[in-house]
């Protein structure tokens, strides 16, 4: 047992070990690989406010845990930008999801990278592509030139793989220890979450698929249909799994049947390290090493919906606040102008109804009785009113509400008023 563990350590923990297989002949090795992950369109209403495209975090962790950097590839860029990105990465991961295999932006952009990868591999380089679940389905569609999916429901099921003879001599499983291969075929180590797939019958009847891919494993769907669950290219470094290896290590929803046994974790680790190791021998990153792979600048149109809402809401708030301030400022200016015009600074005072013998009397402006400690305003004609009533009256008219006597007389007359209030407000 100890010997087995010691032999497995270089495979599990050293992603660049020579024991991991690759199609690439010995040559320059890129120990700083970058794997591009193609984003998916957001279809969940809960996620739409946060952006148009997404990548589940488990895929990023899956690749990074094997020693590679990750660059997200958005679906809104030009062909020239995709060609630039292609020359700066060392492999492509097509993730699972629910996009249309023929009309979606996900499928269109994947097609661009697929054709660039074919050209690069034909030229002697080794550019790997990995498809998981929908990504594998998309690879079959790109190779066959048509959608060959049928109903092969295996929803929330962990299954063992029915390995074929080709699996034991494959590139994908060549570096697997024998005990892991045994566990993979006997234990439920692969999480399946799909409704459609390519059946064994459809695969064998399609000449393009037959000549391009080797079937490494199959599984049986809920309806009894046998579908292809693992495949790899015969000459091209293209790989596909209908199941999800990334969930074994990085997803923990208790409602979903994610395999988390030690063997399940080892399977996920070995597959991630295998794919990243394939990318290490891609020469594109070496040729274009002087050109860093940077994301194109994010334009205003690329911002998530919630950012638009925050910007718009902030603008509305600032506008309303500015409007309130302007109205208040204009009101103060108008108020000051009225006070200067009618001179009510000099005729409004604080008084006691008892001293002025106003107890039981009524303000002629508001027709309410005077009360003790009311703030009063007294005109030169000695008629008294509520202060607030008098202020409003004098802003409109400059006569006494009782006798209609003009209150704006010569300065010397206004200054002779007995008790005056220093300020109005």
UniProtKB/TrEMBL annotation:
The gene is LOC110536323. Its EC number is 3.4.19.9. It is found in: Endoplasmic reticulum; Golgi apparatus; Membrane; Secreted, Extracellular space. It is an enzyme of class 3 (hydrolase). Residues 1-19 form the signal peptide. The active site is at 133 (nucleophile), 244, 244 (proton donor). SUPFAM superfamilies: Class I glutamine amidotransferase-like, RING/U-box. GO terms for molecular function: gamma-glutamyl-peptidase activity; zinc ion binding. Residues 363-404 form the RING-type domain. GO terms for cellular component: endoplasmic reticulum; extracellular region; Golgi apparatus; membrane; vacuole. The chain crosses the membrane at residues 307-331. May induce necrosis and apoptosis. May play a role in cell viability. The keyword NAD does not apply. Keywords: Endoplasmic reticulum, Golgi apparatus, Hydrolase, Membrane, Metal-binding, Secreted, Signal, Transmembrane, Transmembrane helix, Zinc, Zinc-finger. It is a single-pass membrane protein. This is folate gamma-glutamyl hydrolase. PROSITE patterns: GATASE_TYPE_1, PEPTIDASE_C26_GGH, ZF_RING_2. It catalyses: (6S)-5,6,7,8-tetrahydrofolyl-(gamma-L-Glu)(n) + (n-1) H2O = (6S)-5,6,7,8-tetrahydrofolate + (n-1) L-glutamate. The keyword Ribonucleoprotein does not apply. Belongs to the peptidase C26 family. It comes from Oncorhynchus mykiss.
């Amino acid at each position: 047992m100890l010997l087995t563990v010691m032999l497995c350590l270089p495979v599990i923990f050293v992603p660049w070990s020579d024991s991991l297989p690759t199609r690439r002949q010995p040559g320059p090795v890129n120990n700083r690989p970058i794997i591009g992950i193609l984003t998916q369109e957001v279809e969940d209403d809960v996620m739409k406010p946060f952006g148009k495209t997404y990548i589940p975090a488990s895929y990023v962790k899956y690749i990074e845990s094997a020693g590679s950097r990750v660059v997200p590839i958005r679906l809104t860029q030009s062909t020239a930008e995709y060609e630039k990105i292609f020359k700066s990465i060392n492999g492509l991961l097509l993730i699972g999801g629910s996009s249309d295999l023929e009309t979606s932006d996900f499928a269109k952009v994947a097609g661009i990278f697929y054709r660039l990868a074919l050209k690069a591999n034909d030229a002697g380089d080794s550019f790997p592509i990995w498809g998981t679940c929908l990504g594998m389905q998309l690879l079959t569609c790109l190779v066959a030139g048509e959608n060959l999916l049928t109903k092969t429901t295996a929803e929330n099921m962990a299954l063992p793989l029915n390995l074929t003879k080709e699996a034991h001599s494959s590139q994908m499983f060549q570096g697997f220890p024998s005990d892991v291969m045994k566990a993979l075929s006997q234990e439920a180590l692969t999480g399946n979450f799909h409704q459609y797939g390519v059946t064994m019958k459809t695969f064998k009847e399609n000449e393009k698929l037959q000549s391009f891919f080797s079937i490494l494993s199959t599984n049986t769907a809920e309806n009894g249909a046998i579908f292809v669950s693992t495949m790899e290219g015969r000459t091209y470094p293209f790989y596909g799994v209908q199941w999800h290896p990334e969930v074994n290590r990085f997803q923990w929803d208790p409602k979903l049947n994610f395999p988390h046994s030690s063997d399940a974790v080892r399977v996920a680790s070995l597959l991630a390290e295998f794919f990243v190791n394939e990318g290490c021998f891609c020469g594109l990153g070496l040729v274009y090493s002087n050109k860093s792979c940077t994301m194109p600048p994010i334009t205003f149109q690329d911002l998530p919906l919630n950012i638009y809402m925050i910007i718009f809401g902030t603008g509305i708030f600032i506008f309303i606040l500015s409007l309130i301030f302007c109205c208040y400022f204009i009101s103060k200016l108008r108020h000051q102008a009225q006070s200067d015009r009618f001179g009510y600074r000099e005729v409004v005072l604080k008084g006691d109804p008892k001293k002025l013998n106003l107890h039981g009397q009524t303000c002629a402006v508001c027709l309410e009785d005077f009360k003790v400690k009311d703030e009063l305003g007294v005109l030169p004609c000695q008629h008294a009113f509520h202060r607030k009533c008098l202020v409003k009256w004098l802003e409109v008219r400059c006569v006494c509400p009782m006798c209609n006597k003009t209150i704006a007389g010569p300065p010397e007359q206004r200054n002779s008023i007995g008790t005056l209030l220093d300020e109005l407000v």
